[in-house]
Each structure stands twice: as structure tokens, then as C-alpha cells.
Amino acid sequence: MTHSATRPCPDSIDPAELIGQVRPVGEPELRLMGISALTGAATSDGTSSGLGNDTDFALLNALRVWSDAVLVGAETARKENYFGVKVSEQQRREREAAGQQPVPPIVVVSRSLDFDTDTQLITDTAVAPVFTVPNAALDGGDIAARADAIRRAGGEILPVGGDSLAAVVGALRERGHARIVCEGGPSVNTQLVEQDLVDVFHYTISPLAVQPSAVRLFGESDETCERRFELEAVHCTSDSLLFCRYRSGRDSSPQRTR
To answer: In what residue span(s) does the Bacterial bifunctional deaminase-reductase C-terminal domain sit (predicted)?
Structure first.
């Protein structure tokens, strides 16, 4: 484990240092990114952006550029007013040279497809956003009509063979999306952990004590599970944000490369 907390904390940190070592392009790796206040709240004034700083924002962007797909729950995409991933021309060239698509899509997990087609997720993006939905749900008239509306607006529908996150991740991997970064929300985070799909967890702790803390990083669950993660690195910025990187305990000695 590496850390910088015992030295004076810098104003900012290179996101590559926070990301650490990664598997080669084409090898499956799922990274979960989350931030919470000291009180456990996952939002401040309704969004997660109020908890972070420039380094946290840079880490989010760097993980998006690293990824083949950015996974997010429908409610989070709505509340955070998502738009498409922004990739510079140089980053596009680097991704293509490495064998990746020029720009990764935002992949929205939904069971109802109840989504505004005028959102900037569809209107402000270089590639079509992908909406996953259980294949069986498309038999319903309302959901099928919403799927058609999303397609007409420029989005893509990805039917999956079940309503589990494992089915969603499997469908993405079949499309060649080996590297996946997940940005929440609580229900999606909970299922990823329950189904043992997370390889690396980037957990940022804000120094803010936010009340009430109704929205939390992980949601309620009827399942019982215990997953062990190993602390791999800790860094801190001068404004007291703590950046922790945990790796799944089932992957304690992976073959990794930068």
C-alpha cells in the first residue's frame, strides 16, 4: 500500500496516480467510483458534485477515458443531468492506438426506460448513450413505446437476459466493453458488490458533515453478503479530501500493467 497522508497534502493529485495500475486493454476490469461525506451522505444539495473538488472531478474524467463504457443508474443520470463523455483529440488517438473505441458510451441501467429524450445525455454526446433493459420488459406496451422513442431520439437500447447487474455487465462484455467504470447510484452500487463484480473501488471521503444523509452511497438490500477489499493506496489533498483505492480481496495478486 502507498500513501501520502503523513506528508504535507498537495493542492491536487495526478489522476493517473489515483488510478494506479490497470489491466491491459481487452482484459475485464470493473471499477466503482463513489464519494461520501463524513456522515455517509452521498450528495450535498442534491448532487454528488457538491462533495468533491477538482482532483475528484479529474479522477472521474480520467476513469471515463480509461474505460470502454461508463455505467450509471437511470435515477443518478437524471438527477446529475448527465451528458456524454468528453474526450480530447489526443485521447481519441491514444484510445484508438490501444485498440479502444474513440469515445466510451454512457450506459444507463433501467427497468422502465422512463427517460426524457430531450436530455443532454442524448443531445450533447459524441456517441449514442446505451440504455439497458431486461429483455422481458420490452414485451410491455409502455416500455416498448419508450424504447422506440429513445431510439428515434438517437439513443440505443440494449436488451439483457435478466434484471441483474451481472446480466448487464455480461452483455457489455459481449460487446467488447472489457473496462467498465460505474458511477452509481446506490442501488447499482449495492448490486455490484452483492454480485461480486467490483475489481477496484475508488472511494473518496469528503471532510463535509452533511445532514440529513438520506441518500447514501449504497442502498438497502435484502441479501446478505460480505466482500473483502484490500486498501491499496491512500492520498489526501490540502482541502482534506481523502482518496482511497481498494482492490477486491479475490484479486490480491493480479497481473497488472500501467
So the answer is: 41-223
Over the stretch 19-44, which tens digit does the pLDDT of each residue have?
999 999 999 999 999 999 999 999 88
Q: What is the DSSP string of 95-133?
A: HHHHT--SSPPEEEE-SS----TTSHHHHS-SS--EEEE
Residues 14 and 245: beta-carbon distance below 8 Å? no
Rounded CA separation 12/205 (Å)? 15
Query: With contact defined as beta carbons under 8 Å apart, do 186 and 16 qualify?
Result: no
Q: What is the pTM of this model?
A: 0.92
- How many domains in the chain? 1
Question: Does a structural domain hold residue 120?
Answer: yes
Range of the domain at 161: 27-250
Q: Please report, in angstroms and rounded to a whole number, the separation of the first and last CA atoms in the chain.
A: 16
CB atoms within 10 A of CB 179: 22
| Domain of residue 204, CATH code | 3.40.430.10
The CA–CA distances, whole Å, from 133 to 2, 138, 229 equal: 40, 8, 30
Residue at 103 is within a domain: yes
Separation in Å, CA 142 to CA 25, 132, 146, 148: 39, 16, 6, 10
Residue 8: cis peptide before it, omega within 30 degrees of 0: no
Q: Which of helix, strand or coil describes residue 240?
A: coil
Q: Give residue 3's pLDDT.
A: 53
- Paired with 206 in beta bridges are none
Helix, strand or coil for residue 30?
A: strand
Q: Is residue 106 part of a domain?
A: yes
Q: How many CB atoms lie within 10 A of CB 126?
A: 13
User: What is the per-residue pLDDT across 237-248, written as a single tens digit (0 to 9) for each?
Assistant: 999 999 999 999
Residue with cell 443518478: 76
